[in-house]
Design brief:
The chain is of the alpha/beta class. Among the domains are: 1-156, Tetratricopeptide repeat domain (Serine Threonine Protein Phosphatase 5, Tetratricopeptide repeat, Alpha Horseshoe); 309-450, Rossmann fold (3-Layer(aba) Sandwich); 471-645, Glycogen Phosphorylase B (Rossmann fold, 3-Layer(aba) Sandwich), CATH 3.40.50.2000. Helices cover 50% and strands 9% of the residues. Strands 3-2-1-4-5-6-7-14 form an eight-stranded parallel β-sheet, with helices on one face. A six-stranded parallel β-sheet has the order 10-9-8-11-12-13. Strand 8 (481-484), helix 21 and strand 9 form a beta-alpha-beta unit. The radius of gyration is 28 Å and the shape is globular. The two termini are 49 Å apart. Residues 305-460, 469-653 form the O-GlcNAc transferase C-terminal domain.
Length: 678
Amino acid sequence: MSEHQQHIPSALANSGVYTAALLQQLLEQAVAAHQQGRLLQAQALYQQVLERQADNFDALHLSGVIAAQNGDAGQAVQLIGQAIAINPHQADAHYNYGNALQNLKQYLPALTSYEQAISLQPDYADAYLVRGYALQQLRRYDAALESFRRVIQLRPNDAEPYHACGLTLNKQMDYAAALTYFSQALALQAGYVEAHNGYGYALNELKRYDEALLSFSQAATLQPDSDFLAGQIIQAKLQICDWQGINDQVAELGRKIADRKKAVTPFTVLACTDDPVLQRQAAEIWTQEKYPPVNILGELVLYPHHEKIRIGYFSPDFRSHAVAFLTAELFELHNRDQFEIIAFSLGADNHDPMRTRLEAGFDHFLHVQNLSDQEIAQIARNLQLDIAVDLTGHTARCRPGIFALRAAPVQVSYIGYLGTMGAGYIDYLLADRVVIPPQAKTHYLEKIAYLPSYQVNDSRRSIADISYSRTELGLPTQGFVFCCFNNNYKLSPETFGLWMNILKLVPDSVLFLLADNPIAASNLQQAALAHGVAAERLIFGKPLPLPEYLARYRLADLFLDTNPYNAGATASDALWAGLPVLTRAGESFAGRVAASLLTAIGLPELITNSPQAYQALAVELATQPERLASIKTKLAANRLTTPLFDSQGFTSHLEAAYRQMYARSQAGLPPEHIDVSA
């Protein structure tokens, strides 16, 4: 809900048959002080009225309004509630009561209050507006749009309801329609910073990254310190590989994070810095602002011991998505004698083959995407879920608010987000000793559950029986093929500079990249030219279905990883397809995940620790065919004999961690670091 003025009635309600002149004078003085913003004086005068007439509606109501203005929503609910009990026929009181409830995240009672206000005053535009915000929080998006459109009817020249419609459509992922409403908001109020932000977000989701960058930049011109805007600008630039001034912007971002400024989302910061201290600070700032702990559902009572530990996996990505490609077999392999496995699907059903497989792989598959965070957390509690596993973290369509409500006695973060959630209500982070060395545990708010290897994999992933020719994929018939199919936002000017050095040192070599968007491709070609490398030595591949995408790796010779944000699922894909991956281990979780994968598959010789070593090894492998052939032979031998693709072994280790977590919880003990041995 946006910040709205509490309603201070200009005309006082009739307090009863008898109204002493002194009380009336005190009330008038109090309201005047209140309207002028002199809250302490107004509160003192209201208190004087209440000392003389404890059931004075106006003094109770407006004392509650002051409590709300001072940030004490609980006191506001108490005082305004007393006023409404005395006189339930004042629309402003119901409106203000609803606002206080909404500030307490009690959206359903707030909705009731707004509807009561509207029943008393059918043209109450502000009540329709905040009703829409409450419906938005309850994920009743169509009803929210209806409410906002009613405001537009009542106040057609007000920009806010147009902006609110745009935000709601963004949440429904109807980005084209959202753009129309944001445009209307900006036509009415050109300096509307939030509308520029919402417009930029919709453009970004439509992959119109250059236009998104322009919109975010316009917002920054209007309000340079707008919350989280600096990170949005950097993210948009990274999406199109526009690196002009990026190093200075990233350095400034680091200073803002260190100063506890609301500058960047946790996800974006992973691609900006390898410093786990800054990553934790950014996550804590974001979580405290957006997803603070909420106690609406009350404290969890200790559940009785369950014969089978009840595990809930929460994700919007139970479909053809990187997270599902990694985890599908895990759900199927869980020991059903010891565990009951429940999916909480937070995303729409797109009816693809992966969705069908996943639905069959769980004991229960719950479609909860249209429910509010509170409703989902309550379902988890009703099921007496023992362990809730968040597979999304701070990535797209995440729902940390479910865990802020304490959906389960034990809450775990895994696979979707490579870092700390920065939230005290996430008890454990799954890792191994490569992604989080023991001396780095202090950079993570969660307790670390150490597994022998970090990343689960699906050993049933099929590789298409296709033999692509180089010509089909636009590759030269001769020459060494380096590749990196990481998303464009993971590419950095430093890493790209190393790649260009490598190409110059390996004659006739090319670099095979992902064609995520044409602007990025053009910018990368221009960057290559600036490094003295011909643009045609960059080859861009289009997105393909997973089996064909895996088959395409057979035409590459060496995968070059990115820093500070490594390949994760993409590196697993390359290794599964038989392609060696060269990485440079950093300091952060996201900067060490490829090193974890290489350790798990027995290829530590492909892990480097400096830019110089990374470049030198890439050149060595490209110019010494026998060395590279030896590594490929080793990879082929290790593929099904080492932990990385041993799905059953991983599942057993994970279940051992779950048993330890559950035992501590049942014993009433707080979370503690866990170490599962191989």
